[in-house]
UniProtKB/TrEMBL annotation:
GO cellular component: membrane
Matching Pfam families: PSI
Organism from which the protein derives: Oreochromis niloticus
Membrane topology of this protein: Single-pass type I membrane protein
Name listed for the protein in its UniProt record: Plexin domain containing 1
Family as reported in the entry's similarity comment: Belongs to the plexin family.
Residues that span the membrane, as ranges: 300-321
Compartments reported by the entry: Membrane
Primary localization: membrane
Keywords of the record: Glycoprotein, Membrane, Signal, Transmembrane, Transmembrane helix
Amino acid sequence: RVSRAVLGGGLSISTLPNNMTRVVEDSGKYYTWRIFGPENQRAENLWIDMNDVRHGQVRVHGILSNSYKQAVPVALSFDFPFYGHYLRQITIATGGFIFTGDITHRMLTATQYIAPLMANFDPSYSKESTVQYLDNGEVFVVQWEHVRIPGKESVGGFTFQVALYKTGTITFSYRDIPLSVDVISSAEHPVKAGLSDAFMVMSPSSQSQMIYEYHRVEIDVTKITNYSAVEFTPLPTCLLHDSCELCLSASQTSGCSWCHVLQRCSDGMDRHRQEWLDYDFPDVKTDSSTKSVGLANTGVIAGLASALVLLLALILVSLYVSYHPSAVSPLYLIQRRKSYWPSLKFQKQESGYTEVEGGGHEKDSIVEAGPC
């Protein structure tokens, strides 16, 4: 467990396999959310009836509806704001979630997801199990219908959906939850509900990319029941501002800085973090006081010192490897370098997904919409 300061703020992170990390704290910085029980009318109103033609054309995906641990990319008809970033493509997984990352990999369940109910679902078990979606330009809905969990098929099928609104609002709605979610085993697949986002940065020591989850919303799965719902409302982020003046003066956001080179407003904690680091905050307009200048100079000096120490360490490691080619330490370093992102070699216990594109056979007489 490590504590690391980022841009003046404290982040508590815990190391996961393959250099992946997750933030264990939670805050209302990016979203506010409410959970509605089955007795609340709001829960009923949030459910989108996929049989109602007024919502748009529903597409049953042939591959996802007949597969286990599969994921398929689907293009959106509108820009969907997620943690302040605009997405035009998402990846639907059979395991009850949407992956939102730019680079797909076998461990999709780790971070960068929108998960109404992530679990070990197998839509291929029954002909009545389907994964379907619709996109009417205002909302994108994915529904997992009558999907079952291997080894628990007798309890019945789960039916639930997620809706991504053009405004950035996200809703989870549940119809059939035949088994209490907190007793579902996570041995073969993680079980969770909520949101997550991450950024990738270059490791200066190995020149490899690493991914960091900077925020997660975890929903209490004991609250997921028949006819319940969750509604997420996005909060303004620094990325919203497109000018220096708005970036520094907007009252609805805090901790924002403006980079003239990138023409971007940021607090450094978003998917563009690598660019933010590459430019080392050039021409950032913040407080013009002497104190701010002094802190900036201190940061530059510290950065140069760190670079010199790193360079010296690399030279020493290179010399050691040259004179001790069969030693344990250098072999370990070489092996670790091979396992970095994006060519991660995941442990056997990690949930592996196979990405597929378009096509697929039909389930009964339900016509699939074609390539995604």
